[in-house]
Amino acid sequence: MKPMTVSSLPVATLGLPRIGPKRELKFALERFWSGQIDEALLQNTAAGLRAANWTRQEMAGVIEIPSNDFSLYDHVLDTSVMVGAIPPAYGWQGGEVPLSTYFAMARGAQPGPANACGCGAATPAGGVPAQEMTKWFDTNYHFMVPEFRRGQTFALASRKPIEHFEEAKAQGVTTRPVLVGPVSFLALGKSADETLDRLSLLPGLLPVYAEVLRALGEAGAAWVQIDEPCLVLDTDERTRDALRLAYETLAREVPSIRLMLTSYFGGLGESLDTVARLPVAGVHLDLVRAPNQFQAALAALPPDRVLSMGVIDGRNIWRADLGHLLDWIEPVVAARDRVQIAPSCSLLHVPMDLESETALDPELRRWLAFAQQKMHELATLGQALAGGRESVQAALDDSADAARSRRTSERIHDKAVAARIEAVTPVMSRRAKPFAERQAQQRQSFALPAFPTTTIGSFPQTAEVRQARAAHTKAEISDADYEAFLRKETEAAIRWQEEIGLDVLVHGEFERNDMVQYFGEQLAGFAFTKSGWVQSYGSRCVRPPILFGDVSRPKPMTVAWWRYSQSLTDRPVKGMLTGPVTILNWSFVRNDVPRSVACRQIALAIRDEVLDLEAAGARIIQIDEAALREGLPLRRSEWQAYLDWAVESFRLCSSGVGDATQIHTHMCYSEFNDIIEAIGAMDADVISIETSRSKMELLGAFSRYRYPNEIGPGVYDIHSPRVPDTREMVDLLGRARERLADGQIWVNPDCGLKTRKWDEVRPALVNMVEAAKALRKTSGQAAK
Are 344 and 312 in contact (CB under 8 A)? Predict the structure, then answer.
């Protein structure tokens, strides 16, 4: 394959997927963690993936190629390690941070001998918990939250940015290294000391950044991309002062390095004037998510500033209409000397290459572009802008034809779905009676003990489960044999839950590949890839569905499996569904209708399933809205509009049931303080949330708001292989009791257990049940 002709107009990428086309990084990490390979082999795999990415970009015609966009787990964790922001619990004593400490921060560490966490001393008796993890802005990527303390010092503890630049240079590629900016790094962090102003740590942090920039300059770097995504949030004068201090200091200390200040996921808003005056050589704008900022930015940025135009969507998989983009860009290029063309953000958030998706419907496939195709789109734009449209006319014609095909396709719009949306009335989004009256009926019906125990839904998807699914997909085993296998796994899970004393059971979800994909595959309007993987966190990868058209439910999706599971036990088994907002936010969503319209369509489809489950006898139905918070717009002024339709969509799917039917929901790692009223407005009978990593800190919002309904604060961090003991869980529940009434509290893990191993899950859940029993002895609440 020959590289594309390089245009004289610079074409840039801000980052590429790290996991590899076939998830090579995922499998190497998991083999390393299980002891099957050593660190050298893991690092060799990582180096091969980096080299392939640099070559891939060169061949596509990219000029500004990033380095240090690769990470073994998370780029924010890499930054914590780079600057030596290692919490004392990990025992780091200075010097280069070992990989074992890095992974202990990411995943936690079990008790062990000296050097078990790379710190030169035995891991504490209870092990070391992982750092807190939360969503990266409004994406489904998770980052490890930096931890700071009063008196925090910083020191260069990892030379990874320099090493990766030199590695690419040895391959013959001069890259533009990427760093998380110092202001965003501090702004995104946390401190146990709530009085600590994290930005006050900036003067101590900047010398480390200056040291890294000097080293990069000495290694031959001319430019460095420095990401300040906090710029798209609501910023105050304190933050803008910090930006001025940071970039004036770095420009003074390292004048030889030209900085490309990068923002994404939104517009600069009130920070535009500040950014325009910073001593940086270039500014990148996300013109996909915030096209309206363009004219103001064009007027504000000095003519000597390089303008990086983020015009190709780095967050979604729809092909661009290149001719339409050129109509917009050509006048800017004609009037301004210093322009680059780039994606709106890192391509981390899209799959690597569409070429492997040979099973996709050909018409739909024409409408799509993954990372590889987006780089070719950029190169086509660059060539057209440098050499005229006629130089790439065939590519432009193909792009226009694909856009026209998508606009006119009959498969996108369904008149029956549109009519049903029009028929929705306000009463459909309200439960018949208030929670207090429903709660009385439900307690009488279920007769559960105080602090009832349950799990979030899924149980471990073992190698045997995955192999059976793969064999069935390849038609190597019959439908009947596959169903018999799933029934056996489900029955074993039900029997084991009865054995350890869980109060409300789940069927384990062994038949499900993913909590969104499973439903999308049974709904009209969705399509799926075979290899369209994107990273969620660490080695966890997901294949987001492609929501391309109007949504409806042709037939029941979960009723048969719930009915079978409930037939095995007298204890209540939850019906398990994924909510409309989460299905929307965890899909690649169509961009030809408002998101609110697509969400209401999904809500009506899930409503049908809820009512069918209730009619089959399900008394507890869980509708997970794990992604409600992550869909919140980054600007506060836009919150209410989103929350109005998101909450209404949840209520639309959940409110058709009778008063005695208990509706549960689940939410993942989120900051709930600012949306607690909206969570209350969802009116779920029980909500379960992830709280163990924050040590119940997130419950502060629920106690200040006086959340009236019932709540299951997670007592077991399922993102770590570490098994917490009963005493630790009792302590966490004790903290929950300081904020909530005993009658409100359920006991459950943080999230589903699909990614864990049975030898981790079994002791953890046994300990969890024992913790609930211990609390019952100290509670005045009688069994209900």
Answer: yes
The domain 62-91+139-408 having CATH identifier 3.20.20.210: the answer here is: yes
CA angle 132, 134, 138 (to 5 degrees): 165
Residue 470 dihedral angles phi and psi, to the nearest 5°:
-65, -40
Alpha-carbon torsion (121, 106, 159, 21), positive or negative: positive
User: pLDDT at position 1, please?
Assistant: 38
Burial of 356 (0-12, 13-18, 19+ CB in 10 A): middle
CATH architecture of the region 415-778: Alpha-Beta Barrel (3.20)
Contact 688/662 with Cβ under 8 angstroms?
no
Looking at the DSSP bridge assignments, the partners of residue 190 are 147
pLDDT (0 to 100) of residue 670: 61
Beta bridge partners of 508: 458
348, 18 contact by CB (below 8 A): yes
Q: Phi then psi for 427, rounded to 5 degrees?
A: -65, -25
What is the Cβ-side half-sphere exposure of residue 241, based on CA atoms within 13 angstroms? 7
Residues 315/319/325/327 CA torsion (nearest 10 deg): -160
**Positions in the chain short of pLDDT 50:** 1-7, 114-122, 125, 782-784
Nearest-angstrom CA–CA distance, 647 and 649: 5
- The residues near 222 (Cβ < 8 Å, ≥ 6 apart) are 174, 257, 258
CA distances from 772 to 150, 597, 696, 697 (A): 36, 42, 16, 20
User: Catalytic residues, which ones?
Assistant: 719
Residue 780: the pLDDT is 62
Helix (H, G, I), strand (E, B) or coil at 49: helix
Query: DSSP labels for 119-130?
Result: SSSEEPTT-BPP
Distances (CA, A) of 479 to 86, 300, 429, 472, 758: 51, 63, 38, 7, 26
> pLDDT by residue (tens digit) across 534-569?
999 999 999 999 999 999 999 999 999 999 999 999
Average pLDDT, the chain: 93
Residue 139: CB atoms within 10 Å: 18
What is the distance between the alpha carbons of residues 654 and 663, in angstroms, rounded to a whole number? 7
Give me the residue spans of the domains in the chain: 62-91+139-408, 92-130, 415-778
